[in-house]
């Protein structure tokens, strides 16, 4: 059994989609990051970095219980465990390249673009411009790559598509104010529509709505989400 610790944000959404695509048995465990539950000792024992997603596989290698954290690591672990969504063996180097492109590029730049447009104090125009344009540059890399392709790697749907979908699903926030966020990237928009139409996507989205997560952006939320902005709280791990 997989215990899946989640919040309705892009990185956990990737794992939800994988689980729904493969039909792997799992128990969903909500972690309300706006209430600071990710900083509690019980969760830090699963992910020392205090972030979702994370999983505990009660039937890991050798029948032992194992923890896995970070969405890319989880996707690779589960794909290898199930033998699903890995693509052809000869495509493995390409698969790893695109997974790390998302993990080290598209994901972080998209996340920071959202942060500086929605959460940071006003007046930080340089940061807004820097992160939004870098996110858009990554969109363009993908758009160019997807010309004439149905999938990011090889000839089948893989965890590279899942990882990319998780962040492209938030394009309207990354490109705040854009009437058609993926409009300037037609190949990427076509690819996204194809992934978004998969039945498992609807089930993954339903999971995100299965718990009443906190939505008020008050002082507690800010301290929980951005503890480094509050040195005393950060030093105490909250």
Automatic annotation (TrEMBL):
Keywords, alphabetical: Oxidoreductase
Location of the GST C-terminal domain: 88-225
GO terms for MF: oxidoreductase activity
Annotated protein name in UniProt: Disulfide-bond oxidoreductase YfcG
EC numbers for this chain: 1.8.4.-
Alphabetized Gene3D superfamilies for the sequence: 1.20.1050.10, Glutaredoxin
Domain of life, source organism: Bacteria
Entry-linked InterPro entries: Glutathione-S-Trfase_C-like, Glutathione-S-Trfase_C_sf, Glutathione_S-Trfase, Glutathione_S-Trfase_N, Thioredoxin-like_sf
Lineage of the species this protein comes from: Bacteria, Pseudomonadati, Pseudomonadota, Betaproteobacteria, Burkholderiales
EC category: oxidoreductase
PANTHER family linked to this entry: DISULFIDE-BOND OXIDOREDUCTASE YFCG, GLUTATHIONE S-TRANSFERASE-RELATED
The GST N-terminal domain, residue ranges: 1-86
One Pfam family named in its UniProt record: GST_N_2
Entry annotated with the keyword Oxidoreductase: yes
């Amino acid at each position: 059994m997989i215990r899946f610790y989640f919040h309705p944000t892009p990185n956990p959404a990737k794992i939800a989609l994988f689980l729904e695509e493969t039909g792997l048995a799992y128990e969903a465990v909500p972690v309300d990051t706006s209430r600071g539950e990710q900083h509690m000792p019980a969760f830090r024992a699963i992910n020392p970095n205090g972030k979702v997603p994370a999983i505990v596989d009660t039937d890991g290698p050798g029948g032992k219980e194992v923890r896995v954290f970070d969405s890319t690591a989880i996707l690779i672990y589960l794909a290898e465990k199930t033998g699903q969504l890995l693509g052809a063996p000869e495509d493995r180097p390409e698969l790893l390249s695109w997974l790390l492109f998302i993990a080290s590029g598209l994901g972080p730049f998209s996340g920071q673009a959202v942060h500086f447009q929605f959460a940071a104090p006003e007046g930080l125009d340089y940061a807004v411009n820097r992160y939004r344009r870098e996110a858009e540059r990554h969109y363009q890399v993908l758009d160019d790559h997807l010309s004439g392709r149905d999938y990011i790697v090889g000839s089948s749907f893989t965890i590279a598509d899942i990882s990319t979908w998780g962040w492209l699903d938030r394009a309207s926030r990354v490109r705040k104010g854009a009437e058609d966020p993926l409009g300037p990237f037609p190949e990427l928009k076509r690819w996204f529509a194809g992934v978004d139409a998969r039945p498992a996507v609807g089930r993954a989205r339903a999971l995100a709505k299965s718990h009443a997560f906190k939505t008020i952006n008050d002082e507690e939320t800010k301290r929980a989400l951005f503890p480094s902005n509050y040195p005393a709280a950060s030093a105490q791990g909250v």
